[in-house]
Amino acid sequence: MSEYSHPINTLDALYKKETLTGNAYSSTSDIEKPSPHLPTTADLAPLKIEITYPEGGRDAWLVVLGAWCGLTSSLGIYNTSGMFEVVISKVILPEASSSTLGWIFSVYAFVNWVCGVQIGPTFDAMGPRA
Asked: Which domain of life is it from (predicted)?
């Protein structure tokens, strides 16, 4: 595999090579000159990274714990929505009708499920690094 295996590595390698050889740009006219060692498209091919998933042990249980924390924080509010509705109707918005207050939790549920349908597959495809 060449030293230009990834676009970021390419820029780093070009910078380091020019810095080490003393070919750093010294004037504005030098900036416009093309570099003699430009990488080809074959050199810029993406890296093949093998992703491994935990099949047990501490790492697998950390994944389970993280999923539980995420689901509890996003779906757990449904279990407490009655308590929030009482507080909102008695303290925060006492003049609002119950049908008006129902929109707060309806919109939350809609956004939670509709965005989840689109964000979930995107996260699965790209992962947390994207």
From this structure: Eukaryota
